[in-house]
Amino acid sequence: MKQYLLATATTLLLATSALAQGAPSGDVARGKQIYMRDACYTCHGTTGASTSFVGPKLAHAGLTVGQIMRQLRHPQAQMPAYTEKVLPDSEAADLVAYIQSLSQGPAPTGKDIPLLNR
Questions:
Q1: Disulfide engineering: 87 pairs with which of 5, 53, 55, 82, CB 3.0-4.6 Å?
Q2: E strand or H helix that includes residue 32
Q3: How far apart are CA 95 and CA 71, in angstroms?
Q4: 96 within 8 A of 69, measured Cβ to Cβ
């Protein structure tokens, strides 16, 4: 049993390390599908802005691949754990790519929202 736990921990560490180094790279479009499929938007909002949601803001939060993977696999607070059995590493890489894409470009401001500028 002890060897099994050690092997599992080593595998998880290597997978997380590989993702943290940027390999394998994820697909943003598939990541968005996973984000919606797994209902991440219910806590983080559809754009990751999380202004009135339970979960923390993801967009423009400066999250690294390693930080996102640690939170997915070993979450803090009330987020469920997305183990490799629930979310394979390839899907996790896609999800990470999508979450990181939410931070591309400048953070939106009030002047970027047409409805607020009437």
A1: 82
A2: helix 28-37
A3: 12
A4: yes
d(CA 28, CA 118): 33
Q: Which of 37, 31, 33, 35 is nearest to 45 (CA)?
A: 35
Output the pTM of the full model: 0.70
Other beta carbons within 10 Å of 77? 9
Name the class of domain 27-105: mainly alpha
Per residue in 24-40, pLDDT (tens digit) is 589 999 999 999 999 99
What whole-number distance in Å separates Cα of residue 11 and Cα of residue 53?
34
Phi then psi for 44, rounded to 5 degrees?
A: -110, -5
Q: How is residue 88 written in tokens? A: 């394979």
